[in-house]
Amino acid sequence: MNSHDAIVIGAGQSGLAAAHALVARGLRPLVLEAGDEPAGSWPHYYDSLTLFSPARYSALPAMPFPGHPERYPHRDEVVDYLRAYAAHLDTEVRTGQRVAEVLRDNGFRVTTTDGTSFTAPIVIAATGGFGNPHRPAVPGLDDFPGTARHAAQYRSPAPFHGQRVIVVGAGNSAVQIAAELAEHAHVTLATRRPVKFSAQRPFGRDLHFWLDRTGLDHLPIGPWLPDGFTTPVLDTGVYRTALEQQRPDRRQMFTALEGSKVIWPDERREHVDAIILATGYRPDLPYLRELGTEHDRGVSRRHPGLGFVGLEWQRSLSSATLRGVGRDAAHVVRRLLKRTEAG
Fold it and tell me: Fewer beta carbons within 10 angstroms: which end of the chain, N or C?
């Protein structure tokens, strides 16, 4: 039978948190994951990635992150953690199931790319944004003959050894990738504005301790954040020093590309071998093209029973993080059940 209490689309951190929240309410959701394991996008991030939050603040509900709580886990540890979390969930996770479409049909009908359909009164979209990397419109970028890739495709500095590389972006990933590459290549960090830094450990404690202690991390301020809002780069001093030493150097964003040359704001032209776009992501929700994605803090404004978990700033500063998706999932599930029961 393909009728279920609820369907969660995506089995990364957001989908697993949503499934946990549903199970906690007595439901048996079906989780549909396009990939071959319940780990979301984490296996595909760059090799050197470590979390910016300590293990203590990097866990999903009801399962602490293993190891010392003050350490900063590596990407592969997060993958192992999510696998273990999925294994402990009392619900079904089906991998290799990419959702193609969600429609209203006495509740919802969810259809995968292989033509299989499932129905449920509740659907939670939890596919994040990794599958929809943002590629800014830069004149000449499409015709650039060198290597042009998004940070989602970056793995390690090895292919760029000795090359002239530009990393575009001013966030945590951009700075971390640029600093790593600068040990192997001639690298420029191209940004529209100066990089903003925040101390990783103010007053001797990790920043996330203070975010949690003050309650700022929990506040439902996401809908009121200005367009284009970004958080500063968390730094122990390593990255600020690297930029001061021009390893990498930082320049104003180039205006265009002309063949293999970038055109800087002063109209100077320079040959480059590779461009890495650390320019963020957009919600990866193509299966909701018919229903729309307008929501109020994770609950659809138009379709009772449709919810979202894991969208950036959907409810709080931590909505798209390991530490925040659990809170959002519980909030969304509570509101979904209230609306469907009322309906």
Answer: N
